[in-house]
């Protein structure tokens, strides 16, 4: 039982990261109906920007409490990635608004490759150590269970970010516009919603969340490299599908479920008879099963093509 | 007249919405039947159910005495039902001729291996298909455009090409979904001539969804009226024109129970 | 070329090419005495042509955007290597009565096994993916490709993550381009027939295709099976060229490579895609010194191409030729 709880703790912190990335996929899908393939690479940029920010800011703000320092770095890289996300949308996707979805998808793959290989050019291909924003300590009072203050930070911060997102989407004009756009783009436009602004905002918001996920991910695993976004990106997409693409609660729940399941499969690999090496296949098996049996996901609505 | 298409208590539900409700209906062999009703009455849904795009939630559909509900669309077409689409759905990257050729798929004797081996049977078949397709296009005045991309056709011609394409499957029942939509009065007259001609020459029964009353009243032998997914009337054009429930449905009058 | 003459031409080209370029340096033919480096590039070009043309029938002609082509290539590579490297000696002994032709027979067998296994994998992917479209299908095929890679990585019998070494180098220029010609022939022959119009109909409008009696399920699965069969052949040729394969070599990025060839050449244009595959192979070699910049440039090219010329650099070339033919 203890071991199970232990896996659950580990799984939830990984799941939090997936959930943060998955939200970006789902929001963009909501307003533009396409899968932003480059989202996982924005996540990668988030990790690198966090690394450089913490290096530059360390001499200036080194005397601050470490959690506050971590929050500053987090905010800094979220802002940077939000700008990057908006820029990508403006330059690469906006000219393609009325084109077939496949064209946009291929462009997204192009953007993804561009970010990956530019990253390789700028940062080198070898994995780099991520500076520990918060010094890792075991949390006391958990008995045989082991959890670090980093995990606690990740879960708390994720909860706060999700709360903030909820407020933005449900309580602000911009959030209302986002929801209107995802329900019916034409009607939203006719009602005076400025589509371009809303789409930009959505990309910014999604990219910022991905950057937060990246800082958490890098803090948990401590190594970053230019291709680090590929797998988490794809898995987060699976999480989004699991929850039902277009549904924000779905993306959160899907992310958490995926993180936990993946961790459990590795943790219980002996019992299950699945080699731990199959870890990366778990997400895809889940994806295929969902698309076969419940393509609309846990929280999604079924869509029907108009004939 | 022997019925070729029979619908028995057909009901279609999308989530909580009942789009078609307990419709009984039939089309006789070689008959020309019109299906009318206000927007959103369920006419196109009924077409989609007959052609297998949707599966009916309840009820039975029989074609030539055989149950066809629940079959894949292509199989229903292979039994002899063909259709056109309200919002034109041609194979947009293909030429006019190839649009028709693609619809010969059902009647091919030489398939995958034939296409690779290209033997005598294959070559004969290719020639026959091409000749037949050109002939069909010729009959409908589209032969000169055969090698043009279908996108370059005028709107009315695209609608005509949809009919040609449907006829290429050699149907015994042809469903036309608002063929007169977007046509000018001259084109509409021409369309009516075309539908009559199609029946005389190829002999299929025709089920026609149309908003244009001149067209419907002008050529249909029998008309069924749908409102809110229910069949509210059925009869000859003159009977329908007098039917108070139909008039009410179209003009929004109170129905005084007779 | 409505008749079998195109088949004859292909066989002829195959014969001439394989006679000229047996790939053995001691060959009597002067043309065969090109240096090994160039020879390898020419062979790689042929392999890439097979990959691109076979992906084209899935994505270009049938409109099923797939990002898992490298997975099928992997199945073919490992399947064929299992025949020649793992079972090699035993099979060779069993075929010893054939004398000097025995190694060639083993190679042919391995090609067949590789292609067939990949075709089976294609069937396994095609069937469950049928309901999906566009970006969903792309992700699922990508997922399948990754699953194949992870499975190989965790199968010790084929070397696991370390890969499989010591695969005999059977692949020659003649075999490669012969099979490339065969692949081009098959795909164009299929597409250029009344039967094959079904593929294009599925691509243009699935609902209309079904309504016209085209069994879209059958066409999609057929496209997947044919496409993966040839991807498997390409994998087998690749394994027997390089002599050593790792699961990493068949990752998602390899699939993207092939996708880039197809897009550059123009989806649905066999000629364009063939030319693009050759061009990109040579370009890759030219830019080998600038490896780091190469992929950045490709990525930019892809984006700019999609914005300015989504039909590909060479797309529409087929249609142009067709139009000229019809005019005359």
How are the secondary structure elements laid out?
The complex is a heterotrimer of chains A (307), B (258) and C (328).
Chain A: H1 2-32, H2 39-61, H3 66-93, H4 101-123, E1 128-129, H5 149-171, H6 173-183, H7 185-190, H8 195-221, E2 223-224, H9 230-243, H10 248-267, H11 269-272, H12 279-293
Helix pairs in contact in A: 1-5, 1-6, 1-8, 1-9, 1-10, 2-3, 2-4, 2-8, 2-9, 3-8, 5-6, 5-8, 6-8, 9-10, 9-12, 10-12
Chain B: E1 3-14, E2 17-28, E3 32-36, H1 43-50, E4 58-63, E5 66-67, H2 73-79, E6 81-83, H3 96-102, H4 112-117, H5 120-139, H6 155-168, E7 173-177, H7 185-202, E8 205-209, H8 213-219, E9 222-227, E10 230-235, H9 237-242, H10 244-251
Chain C: H1 5-20, H2 36-61, H3 69-86, H4 88-94, H5 102-129, H6 134-153, H7 173-191, H8 197-204, H9 206-211, H10 216-242, H11 252-265, H12 270-286, H13 291-308, H14 317-327
Q: Can you put this structure into words, describing what you see?
A:
- The complex is a heterotrimer of chains A (307), B (258) and C (328).
- With 307 residues, chain A is mainly alpha-helical.
- Chain A has a domain at 16-137 and 146-229.
- Helices cover 73% and strands 1% of the residues of chain A.
- In chain A, α2 crosses α9.
- The termini of chain A are far apart.
- The model of chain A has no long low-confidence stretch (mean pLDDT 91).
- Chain B is an alpha/beta fold and 258 residues long.
- Chain B has a domain at 3-93 and 163-251: Rossmann fold, CATH 3.40.50.
- In chain B, 45% of the residues are buried.
- The mean pLDDT of chain B is 92.
- By secondary structure, chain C is mainly α.
- Chain C has one domain (5-22, 35-251).
- Chain C is built from 14 helices and no strands.
- The model of chain C is unreliable at 23-28 (pLDDT under 50).
- Classes of the chains: A mainly alpha (307), B alpha/beta (258), C mainly alpha (328).
- The interface between A and C is large, with 45 and 38 residues.
């Amino acid at each position: 039982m203890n071991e199970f709880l232990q896996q659950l703790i580990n799984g939830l912190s990984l799941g939090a990261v997936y959930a943060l990335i998955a939200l970006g996929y789902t929001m963009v899908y909501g307003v533009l109906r396409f899968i932003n393939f480059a989202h996982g690479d924005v996540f990668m940029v988030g990790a690198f920007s966090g690394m450089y920010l913490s290096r530059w800011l360390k001499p200036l703000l080194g005397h601050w409490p470490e959690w506050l320092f971590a929050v500053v770095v987090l905010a800094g890289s979220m802002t940077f990635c939000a700008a990057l996300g908006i820029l990508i949308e403006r330059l690469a996707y906006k000219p393609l608004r009325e084109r077939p979805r496949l064209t946009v998808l291929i462009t997204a793959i192009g953007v993804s490759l561009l970010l990956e290989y530019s990253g390789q050019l700028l940062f080198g291909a070898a994995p780099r150590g991520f500076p520990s924003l918060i010094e890792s300590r075991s949390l006391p009072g958990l008995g045989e269970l082991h959890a670090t203050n980093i995990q606690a930070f990740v879960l708390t911060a994720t909860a706060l970010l999700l709360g903030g997102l909820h407020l933005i989407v449900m309580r602000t004009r911009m959030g209302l516009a986002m929801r209107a756009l995802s329900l019916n783009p034409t009607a939203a436009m006719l009602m005076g919603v400025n589509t371009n602004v809303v789409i930009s905002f959505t990309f910014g918001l999604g990219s910022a969340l991905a950057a937060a996920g990246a800082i958490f991910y890098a803090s948990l695993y401590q190594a970053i490299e230019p291709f680090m976004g590929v797998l988490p990106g794809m898995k987060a997409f699976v999480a989004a599908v699991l929850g039902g693409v277009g549904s924000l609660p779905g993306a959160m729940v899907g992310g958490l479920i995926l993180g936990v399941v993946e961790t459990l499969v590795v943790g219980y690999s002996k019992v299950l008879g699945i080699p731990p090496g199959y870890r990366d296949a778990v997400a895809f098996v889940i994806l295929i099963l969902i698309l076969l049996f419940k393509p609309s996901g846990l929280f999604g609505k079924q869509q029907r093509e108009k004939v | 007249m022997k019925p070729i298409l029979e619908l028995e208590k057909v009901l279609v539900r999308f989530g909580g919405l009942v789009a078609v409700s307990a419709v009984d209906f039939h089309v006789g062999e070689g008959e020309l039947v019109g299906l009318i009703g206000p927007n959103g009455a369920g006419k196109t849904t009924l077409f989609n159910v007959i052609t297998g795009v949707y599966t009916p939630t309840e009820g039975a559909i029989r074609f030539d005495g055989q149950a066809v509900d629940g079959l894949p669309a292509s199989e229903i077409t292979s039994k002899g039902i063909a259709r056109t689409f309200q919002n034109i759905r041609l194979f947009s990257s293909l030429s006019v001729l190839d649009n028709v050729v693609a619809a010969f798929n059902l009647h091919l004797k030489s398939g995958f291996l034939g296409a690779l081996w290209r033997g005598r049977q294959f070559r004969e078949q290719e020639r026959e298909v091409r000749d037949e397709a050109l002939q069909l296009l010729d009959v409908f005045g589209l032969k000169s455009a055969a090698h043009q991309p279908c996108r370059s056709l005028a709107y009315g011609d695209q609608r005509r090409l949809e009919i040609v394409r449907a006829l290429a499957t050699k149907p015994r029942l042809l469903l036309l979904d608002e063929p007169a939509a977007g046509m000018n009065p001259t084109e509409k007259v021409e369309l009516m001539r075309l539908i009559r001609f199609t029946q005389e020459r190829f002999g299929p029964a025709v089920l026609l969804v149309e908003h244009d009353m001149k067209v419907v009243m002008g050529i249909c032998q029998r008309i069924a009226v749908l409102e809110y997914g229910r069949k509210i009337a059925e009869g000859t054009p003159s009977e329908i024109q007098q039917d108070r429930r139909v008039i009410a449905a179209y003009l929004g009058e109170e129905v005084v129970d007779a | 070329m409505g008749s079998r003459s195109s088949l004859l031409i292909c066989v002829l080209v195959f014969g001439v090419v394989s006679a000229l370029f047996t790939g053995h340096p001691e060959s009597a033919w002067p043309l065969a005495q090109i240096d090994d480096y160039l020879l390898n590039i020419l062979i790689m070009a042929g392999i890439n042509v097979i990959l691109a043309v076979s992906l084209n029938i899935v994505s270009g002609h049938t409109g099923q955007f797939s990002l898992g082509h490298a997975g099928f290539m992997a199945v073919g590579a490992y399947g064929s290597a299992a025949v020649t490297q793992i079972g090699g000696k035993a099979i060779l002994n069993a075929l010893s009565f054939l004398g000097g032709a025995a190694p060639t027979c083993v190679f042919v067998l391995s090609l067949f096994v590789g292609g067939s296994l990949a075709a089976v994998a294609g069937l396994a992917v095609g069937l469950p993916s049928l309901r999906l479209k566009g970006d969903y299908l792309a992700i699922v095929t990508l997922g399948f490709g990754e699953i194949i890679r992870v499975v190989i990585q965790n199968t010790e019998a084929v070397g696991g993550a370390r890969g499989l070494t010591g695969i005999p180098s059977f692949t020659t220029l003649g075999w490669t381009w012969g099979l490339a010609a065969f692949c081009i022939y098959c795909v164009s022959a299929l597409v250029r027939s009344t039967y094959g119009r079904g593929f294009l109909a599925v691509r243009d409008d699935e609902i209309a295709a079904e309504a016209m009696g085209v069994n879209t399920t059958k066409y999609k699965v057929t496209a997947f099976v044919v496409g993966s069969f040839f991807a498997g052949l390409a994998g087998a040729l690749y394994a027997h060229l390089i002599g050593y394969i790792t699961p990493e070599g068949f990752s998602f990025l390899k699939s993207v490579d092939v996708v880039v060839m197809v897009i550059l050449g123009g989806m649905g244009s066999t000629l364009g895609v063939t030319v693009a595959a050759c061009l990109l192979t040579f370009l890759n070699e030219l830019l080998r010194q600038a490896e780091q910049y190469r992929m950045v440039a490709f990525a930019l090219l892809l984006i700019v191409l999609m914005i300015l010329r989504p039909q590909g650099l060479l797309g529409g070339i087929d249609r142009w030729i067709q139009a000229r033919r019809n005019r005359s």
